[in-house]
Amino acid sequence: MLHTIIKKNSYQDSVNLMLLTNHISALEGVTQASIMMGTPANKDIMRNSGLYTGELEQAGANDMCIVIDAEAQGKLDHILAAVDSFLSDQSVSSGQSAIESVRSWERALKESPDANLAIISVPGQYAAAEAGKALDHGLHAFVFSDNVPVEEELSLKRKAHEKGLLVMGPDCGTGILSGVPLAFANRVTAGNIGIVGASGTGIQEVTTLIDRMGGGISHAIGTGGRDLSETVGAITMLDGICGLAHNDRTEVIVIVSKPPAKAVRDKVVGQLQGLSKPVVTLFLGEKPAAHEGNVYQAYTLEEAAMIAVDLAKGAAVKPLYSLPLEVPEAALNPGQTSIQGLYAGGTLAAEAAMLIADALQLKDGLIHEAGYVLKSNGHAIVDLGDDMYTQGKPHPMIDPATRIQHIEKAAQDPTTAVILFDVVLGYGGHDDMASVLAPAIEKAAAKAQTEGRKLYFVAALCGTRQDPQSYEEQKRKFEQAGVLVKESNNQAVRTVLAMMKLGLEEVPKAHRPAATTISEGFSASAAVEALLGGKPSVINVGLQKFTEAITASGAKAIQYDWRPVAGGSVKMQRILSQLNDYRFTN
Amino acid sequence: MKYQTIDEANQAVIDKIAGGTPFLVDVVPARTVIPELEGKTLLHAGPPIAYKDMTGPMQGSCVGAALFEGWAKDETEARSMLERGDIHFIPCHHVKAVGPMGGITSGNMPVFVVNNRSEGNEAYCIMNEGIGKVLRFGAYSEEVVTRLTWMKDVLGPVLSRALKATKEGLNLNVMIAKAITMGDEFHQRNIAASLVFLKEISPYIVNLDMDKQEMRNVIKFLADTDQFFLNIMMAATKAVMDGARTIEAGTVVTAMCRNGRDFGIRISGMGDEWFTAPVNTPQGLFFTGYSQADANPDIGDSAITETFGVGGMAMIAAPGVTRFVGAGGFQDALATSNEMVEISIDQNPNFTVPTWNFRGICLGIDARKVVETGIMPVINTGIAHKEPGVGQIGAGTVRPPVECFEKALEAYASKLGLL
User: Fold this and answer.
1) Considering only Cβ atoms within 10 Å of each terminal Cβ, which end of chain A, N or C, has fewer?
2) What is the SS3 assignment for A128?
3) How much is the pLDDT for A123?
4) pLDDT at B1 over 80
């Protein structure tokens, strides 16, 4: 039945009342409701919708008329209370986002005329074009996107070099500029060590180790994994080195890369040897025997960090950096003979494989089988971030599902002695990896236990105490789950090797003068000097979470919610570009 | 007119939009300024459409117009005339006119005459009938026809005499600039502009030698009709956009309109040609008893206001109606207006919006930017019931289909010999 409530002299505008009507209509026990001011026109509307009552006759234009079709009389008080509470709390719950977002380059540049860096995280097929636009607008480009053809990478980098700009990437996972984290990066203490690296987790491991050893980072410039290939010729790395060489805040330079082609290596090392600043190089997979001039050559990521910290403090570089290891006495069955490495970070996986291959004195180096970084003598190191595991799935740094499957599988194998894995904290990574991996680890260990085997878990925890995830908390959670947590990948791998009674030979390094030096072409462009001179002002083209990390560290970022031009229609893209280029002949 | 690129041609078009100076000069029977209305002819909203393809509200309006003109004695006779094709149809836009919702305009209906002094061109629009049962939403009851007759016999002539007494007519730019600072966006909300109009015109009305009761009725009608200015604004923006599209080059959208079936746009480089695609149905808030399922698809010429840069394009100007765009209220409105900047060429400094840090309204929708970004203009709109005679059931927003803009660009590229 219909109930009428007239609130005299209670004006509300019609929009409020329509919203209120929706709100009241949704209450339990209400079949239909209409709330309007009592103007003649509104009364007609009520008549049309069958909600007219005699009481409305008395209502005037300044009276709020509430007509409710409801079952029980008893609900009316409740409904009236809901009306009052709605009207007294009309301020829209603050959905205000601090992130300014735009939909075009034009507006991004208008809103942020001082922008000097674009982060590109759009699908690979569009990435080169967007990076090209960034360069055209005079911006450095950080290209997170992968699947960019190497020819396009080369032409972008040539164009950038000519303009005095840097292209970091493609497939550049990490970077830090003046403390501002780019993409997957850690929050590190500011300091005098600058890094140029061609590997994402390699940079993360070195920067976080330096931080935890008490050193600090000026900048970490990612180059993308192919920069040191013969095709690209280290264009970004050479420009990055020049930039750090001219950067006042950088006193020590660290280079991180897989071993490059010889010609490229010679060019890079030659340039490094011409610098007045000390340099640490880590060409992962090479086992250097000596330091040369100002260039100190490290074997592991941790050693690179330790040398850099000594240099940064002005301390002498030691011939040998070895750390005491706490190795638990492993109670293994005779059949438990293998190490199973389940990595999320590609460089960390490669380092583990390198150390295990070294300990096993494998003559043929690392055995390559799809998805494995090492598979030999029963031992296996898997890079779960490899394309074959990430097709259509999130990266294991974000999503634990693939790794949990591999933990279950490895635990079932009776030959497995130790499961070795990495956890990378920082911006972009999973919020609480320990909590999601711990149950899988406990379950696998318990299952092995019932089958009469003790299964060991050793983790390398990469991150800093300032990271969004709490380092100590993650460590504690893993330890509670029975995991032996090590603060570097090097230590984690060496611990596992020692548990397996495998030794690594450590040879002190000699220090000899540099063989060749190149002392030309060292000037950094004004644009690179400006980029390294202060916090970047960023246009983030693509993934919004990158913007959040940048603004959280006090730098300016504009979010560009990128979409393919013309919804991806090739035909319309062509028409647009023809119209844009058209010249009238009048 | 020397321009080398489409950007330069577009600049010439938007210079004429920004430079438009519309004056409201008269109210006259439509047939006196639109000769095409001789005989049994009606104007309708949107791109061309035949009677049989019209949606319910527009057909209902046709019945009402036939009754108002005395062509038929009742609904049955009117319907059979319409179905037989006795009545000829022309889109409003083809005869310098615009019409709200159904846009049905007949020869004896009074229309506003707006003169765009910068270009010397005119535009016309019928007067607002108020809310509830009204012709533009497809109602045709006796009450509707009676009101239309009163508007023809009393309201129109009175406003005509008052406007003539102003000598110059009313400078609409001044009124628009005032009202935008008072919270109007000129499509969903015109209450401030309607009051400014009343304030300007009433000294002239009360000075007329006429029957006191009729004078009271006129003043009462103007005071009660919150959306009265909408139709003046439509004529004004039509006049300005028609003045601007004398530059026959570029990709500026010069008209957007809907006939209930198709959405039509024109761009500066393609003159009178329409580019159409099926309309969407508005989303919004509904009066009690009605829901989205009752809503008629998008209809009316009123999107000429958005083409000019107000209405949904200036959502942020009207905090009072921002919640039509979504639960986020003011922030959503701000985001919507910022989004509209992406598809506009510039901002019009003549009409600054206080709630937008005094940024000017959007100036010149570029069809290229629409297609490039996939951002469609936002149109504020009343929502008609899909059955004739019911009238307005809500209000909300709607966006055009992208195909209109794609077709326009393709045709222009073809005209320029690029395809």
Assistant:
1) C
2) helix
3) 84
4) no
Q: Which residues 37-66 on chain A approach chain B with CB closer than 8 angstroms?
A: 41, 44-46, 48-51
Residue in B5, B7, B3, B13 with CA at minimum distance from that of residue B364? B13
Model confidence over B383-403: pLDDT tens digits? Answer: 999 998 788 888 899 999 999
Binary contact (A102, B342; C-beta < 8 A): yes
At A586 the pLDDT is 61
- The model's pTM is 0.80
**B76 SS3 class:** helix
pLDDT under 70: residue ranges of chain A: 89-100, 363-368, 392, 516-522, 586
Give the pair of three-digit tokens for residue B146: 């009676």
Contact assignment for A575 to B130 by CB distance below 8 Å: no
Q: What is the pLDDT of residue B322?
A: 80
Q: How far off is chain A from B255, nearest CA to CA, in Å? A: 20
Q: HEC profile for A345-356?
A: CHHHHHHHHHHH
| pLDDT score for B410 | 98
Nearest CA in chain B to A67: B288
Burial class (CB in 10 A: 0-12, 13-18, 19+), B180: buried
Asked if A572's CB is within 8 angstroms of B406's CB, the reply is: yes
Q: Where are the alpha helices (DSSP H) in B42-121?
A: 56-69, 75-84
At CB < 8 A and 24+ separation, what contacts does B325-333 make?
A: B325/B378, B325/B397, B327/A92, B328/A92, B328/A95, B329/A92, B330/A92, B331/A92, B331/A94, B331/A95, B331/A96, B331/A97, B332/A95
- Put simply, the answer to whether A18 touches B416 (Cβ < 8 Å) is no
Q: Are B51 and B85 in contact (CB under 8 A)?
A: yes
Find the closest chain B residue to A43 by CA distance.
B132
d(CA A193, CA A278): 10
**Residue A582 near chain B (CB below 8 Å):** yes
**Is A387 part of the contact surface with chain B (CB cutoff 8 Å)?**
no
Residue of B nearest to A19 (CA): B285
pLDDT at B168 over 80: yes
Single-letter residue type at A402:
T
What is the model's pLDDT at position A93?
A: 46
- What pLDDT, on a 0 to 100 scale, did the predictor assign at position A90? 62
**What is the β-pairing status of strands B253-259 and B299-300?**
antiparallel
Chain B: give the shortest CA distance to residue A556, in Å.
19
Q: What is the DSSP letter of A185?
A: B
- Asked if A567's CB is within 8 angstroms of B402's CB, the reply is yes
Which tens digit of pLDDT belongs to each residue from B250-280? 999 999 999 999 999 999 999 999 999 999 9
pLDDT of residue A96: 45
Point out which residues pair with A286 in neighbouring strands.
A284
- A33 compared with B204, residue with greater pLDDT: B204
B314: nearest Cα among B182, B179, B184: B184
* Token reading at A478: 């893993």
Q: Give me the residues of A, 83-102, that contact B with CB < 8 A.
A: 92, 94-97, 102
For CA atoms A193, A195, A200, A201, give the dihedral sign: negative
- Between A36, A46, A107, which is nearest B341 by CB? A107
Contacts of B374 (CB under 8 A, 6+ apart): A563, A566, A567, B402
Q: Please give the order of strands across the beta sheet that includes B379-384.
A: B283-286, B392-398, B379-384
From A563's Cα to the closest Cα of chain B, the distance in A is 7
Q: CA-to-CA distance for B270 and B279, rounded, in angstroms? A: 21
In this predicted structure, what is the pLDDT of residue A548?
A: 87
How many whole angstroms separate alpha carbon A215 and alpha carbon A212?
7
What number of residues does chain A have? 586
In this complex, do A96 and B331 lie within 8 Å of one another by their Cβ atoms?
yes
The residues pairing with A280 across neighbouring beta strands, listed in sequence order, are A254, A296
